[in-house]
Predict the 3D structure of the following.
Amino acid sequence: KALESVNVDYCEIGFRFAKNTGFKGPCAFTSEDFLNSLDIPKNIKIAIMLNGDDFIENNQFKFETLQRLIPVKAEKSRVNLVRVACHYEEIKKILPLFDYLNEYGYLSACNIMQISEKTPQKIEEISSVLSLSKVEIIYFADSLGSLSPNQIQDITLGIRKNWSGPIGIHAHDNKGLALSNTLEAINCGITWIDSTLTGIGRGPGNAKTEEIVIELNKNKQNNLNLVELIKIINKEFNPLKLKYSWGTNIFYYLAGEYSIHPSYIQSMLTDSRYQEEDILSSINYLKDQGGRRFNYGDLNELRKFYKISDIWHKKTTRK
């Protein structure tokens, strides 16, 4: 209701994960029964997200997974928009997914992750492939939080080489640039904008809804009613932020600078075994060795390496 009061069009409530290895909360699966239990204002359309790699097994597309996750047509569902998060190498393999969503009456979006790591040639190739599919929106995500506003125009131009449809942006705030990047995207003609209340999200978080709606309403004559939005931020989101500490800091900034996956930083910050020097050492290692794809096992190896190095350094110093 707070989102409706500031004219937000869509609310992405959660994922539909294919792998249920334990209870992760209802928004990890966002079932039709769960959505039907909610009192959702009529003016708010609902979005969910799928993971592209859930539909690929042995290099083959798994229709049975799609049929299980999207069992009913849009006319019988509370879901209006289905977004599919995927890496560059998965796009060609999941194209049947967009055919299915189109046939079932859903608006669909392809969310390209880690766009900052893609060359102009690859971005043009992505737009060419997707222009021949049934997908209706191309989203790009600054997953590593490393983009700056001057790069947004180049990415948009690359997508526009072969794509004339709507484009969306999903900005991460590692370097405090999520708002600036989003506003630059709007200047470039991008019409789908992601944001979260107080920037809530993994690690450094995202562009803030409250800031975006203010920016978008600057030149409009009608007054923006922020009361409901501010109330829910103060009542619900600020206490959560104190508890979970999302938002950028120097470690996330460095991760954005060196294209390191933010989950490495988040995992170390929430693990009391990691001191400041451990985190900085790990960042230096990942900077040189590559940390774009998160692997929790790498953290244990990093810790072993740097603790051994510290012990060796102390012993040699004493000699």
